[in-house]
Amino acid sequence: MSKSLLIISRQAPWSGPGAREALDIALAGGAFDLPIGMLFLDDGVFQLAPAQQPGALQQKDLSANLQALPLFGVESLYVSARSLQERGLHEQRLSLAVEPLDDAALTTLVARYDQVITL
Amino acid sequence: MATLHMLSHSPFSDSRLSSCLRLLGPSDALLLCGDAVYALQPGSAQRQALELMPSSIGLFALDEDLNARALDGPQRLQVVDYAGFVELSCRFDKVNSWL
Questions:
Q1: Spatial CA neighbour of A13 closest among A37, A53, A44, A38
Q2: Does domain B3-98 match CATH 3.40.1260.10?
Q3: What's the ipTM?
């Protein structure tokens, strides 16, 4: 059995390569059938905001890659409810189906995985 | 599964430390290195938050990073060198690097 990996993505989508790199790790792991989970935390929740226009910054659309996560077998997708709330985002209006977790549930989530990386 | 959380960014310019404190488990530990040791700055809210963590949570910092910045930790702080860093990484089930 492969070791499970939780990727905590906490960078906003257009501030640098962090968000895309976290996503690339998830997609690559998913392609190899590794048990991968992904948690969106802090500014990382902005990746899930609807109706973004990356073309305005001459960048590629990250949301297309996000939509690919379930296709690559990465279906354990979580978001910090507190990070959403702090930033005025609503869980019903995100661009991807993710499970909101409170702080206590985050602790349990991290404990459940064999390995964790925060980008 | 106990996790060693490794922080290396200043807590004054970034929310890594506060987010980390929110998802710490009761048997987890915190290792401060690089600019993250500024969290031990006396009189800061960050230092107070570290002092108020449950006693079951280990608090570690890299000796040379403390020395370079002339910082001392509270009583509960355990100072480690690089060999201690490696030993810590092996002691915990996993290491979460807050990159």
A1: A44
A2: yes
A3: 0.75
